[in-house]
Every structure is written in C-alpha cells, then in structure tokens.
Amino acid sequence: MALDVDAIRARIPALKSGTARFDAPGGTQTPQPVIDAVAEALANPLANRGRTTEGERNADDIVAQARSALADLLGADPRGIVFGRSATQLAYDLSRTLARTWGPGDEVVVTRLDHDSNIRPWVQAAEAAGASVRWADFDPATGELLAEHIEAVLSPRTRLVAVTAASNLIGTVPDLPSVARLVHGVGALLHVDAVHYASHAVVDLAALGADTLVCSPYKFLGPHLGVLAARPEFLETLRPDKLLPSSDAVPERFELGTLPYELLAGARAAVDFLAALEPDARGSRRDRLVASFAALEEHEEALRGRIERGLADLGGITVYSRAARRTPTLLFTVAGLRPAEVYRQLAERGIDAPAGSFYTLEASRRLGLGDEGAVRVGLAPYTDADDVDRLLTALGTLAR
Q1: Exposed e or buried b for every residue in 313-328, given b needs 16+ CB within 10 A?
Q2: Tens digit of pLDDT for each residue in 72-98?
C-alpha cells in the first residue's frame, strides 16, 4: 500500500498557494469534496430536523449520515456520537455533567502531557464540586507517559482520569489499553482526548478502553466542529442541562440548539475522503478506513524518519519528540534563535511551521520550554518529500 500523494494534493485547493505546510496539528487543509459537501448542504432546502418537508428530511439525513461516518471512524455506535462546537466545549459540558456526582473526598486525575482542553475543564469541575485533583507526570527526558505514571496517582477515591491518546505537542502515544485497565480497576472512568491521535491512526473506542472520547474533524481534513464518542448505554446514565422542549433522546440530549448541518455534511465527506486514501481497499467503510490509515501511517512514518535524520545531520537543533511510539509530530528548537524567529523566517521561505506551546502549556513548561514553547512540525496526508526537503534546506540555512 502506498499513498498517491499527488492525487491527494490535487484535490486540496489551498495547496495551490505553494506553501509547504507543516501546521497540520493545528488544523489541516480542506479537500474539494469536503468543500462541495458543505456547499451542497447549504444549496439545498434545510429546516429543523423532521420527516415531513424536504428541508426537514435533508437535515435529518445529514445528521444520520454524519453520525454513521464518525462512528465508523472511531469504532463506535452511531447512537453514541455527540456533536458540539469543539472538543473543548464538549469536554466542558461533560465535566460539568459528571461533576454533579462528585464531592469532597473524590479525586480526578489529569496529566501534564495533555492539551489544556483535557486539563482545565476537569480541574475546574473538580474544584467546583469540592473534589481533589491529582497530577500524573511524564518523563521529560524521554517524552513518555507510562501506565505506571497513572497508577502512581490512582486510588479507590478516583472518579475519572483524563488522558491524551497522543500529544499534540511532542507526539507521544501512551499505552491507553494498559491505562484503561488500571483506571477501571479502581472503578473510575477514562476520558480520552483523541484530537491529535485521530489524524494519524485508527481509533477504536472499545480497544482503547475509553468511556468517553473526543476528536475534531478539522484536524483530519474536515470542517470546524467537535465530536464526542461513548457507549449509548453510558450516555443514558447522564443528565446534562438542556432546554425543556429539546429532545431527551440519546445522543440528542447532549446537543445544544440546532446542529450545524453543513458542517456535519463536511465531516461525513472528510471521513469518506480518508476511507478512499487507499483506492484499492474494499469492504465496509470501516474496513476501508483501516486500510487507508495503514497506508497513511506508512507514508507519514517514512517522512518523519526523513525529517529526523535530516535534523540530526544539521546540528544545533534539539528535538523534544523522543517517545518510542509517537505520531509524525516533531517539536524542536534551533540554537541561538527564538522559536518565534524560526517560525517567521521559515514563513518568509514559504514554509509554515508554527512555534508556541499550542495550548499544551503544562507539557511545555515540564520540558523546560516555558510558555514560549518551540517550533512544531506536523505531517498530513498531503505532505510530500519535496515539502520535507524544503524544510530541511531552510533549517540548514538558519542553523548555520
């Protein structure tokens, strides 16, 4: 299996600008079929969901198709797919709902590796409920967050553990199944931030051991919204705040107001685009997604290796992405240059590799990078060898 990167790039209009884009961890560029799906949804009659008028049926069908697509992507049940404005918003909503059952003596665990959207909602909800917060550390020398780091802060009083499936800052992929066994062993819930992970690997809700999981389609070629996945039976046990006349059915009871139908149409199209990355794949959409992600991982790993070897040859560059298992995401500094200056000079050369802590403030501080962070390079299905060579040539000039 090998990706036809030229064919992928030809379907992404934004790449016509000629910029070599390494900013995918912050959001990918949009394929034409996704753009078309959004436009088509808006061009046809739309109304509040129902089955009487054409507009109602269009809206209802879009929602059903989007739930089915995201369920295929995440290895979940369509009845357990909740849509929201963002993964951050969904984490806040979920944390407030769950915290109603917390009180003094209860404990919530967060990690220093995580994006702040998987830290602050839980910290603030725990504080409001009078519960305690315990912090799981990671090893800044290796970038590893091990199951034993989580185990060290678990207790019979733990109610929930929030952990990333992959660090958006340094790419670390923790062993979530092992973490899940420990968490469930003390009777706690496991909430997983898969926003970065879902861009690079097949997600399987049950295999990861997650009770709840969030992702963001704009990180994998789709539009801006958030998705939460959980078992429908678990969602049935939760009573979120909602308007009196709004549906009490699951998953609708968690979705506030009218859904953005056009964005859901785009999210469905993004999943279909991903499923077609390996054009020879056959079977169900889930089967095709598994095959396509296998090809994607092979492609991204090859380019990641190319970048890592190139950085090692340059000298004067410190790389902080060191975990044994990690996504194709590299965080680094260039000796003698502030990260923001590297970002600026690369941008002047038509290379987009942003600098910062990228809302992963705790990890940036733990790595000794403070709030300033470092330069981050991330890959996407449309990244090619020419992009990588342009990046390495430019960094070679800066490092000298």
Answers
A1: eeeebebbbbbeebbb
A2: 999 999 999 999 999 999 999 999 999
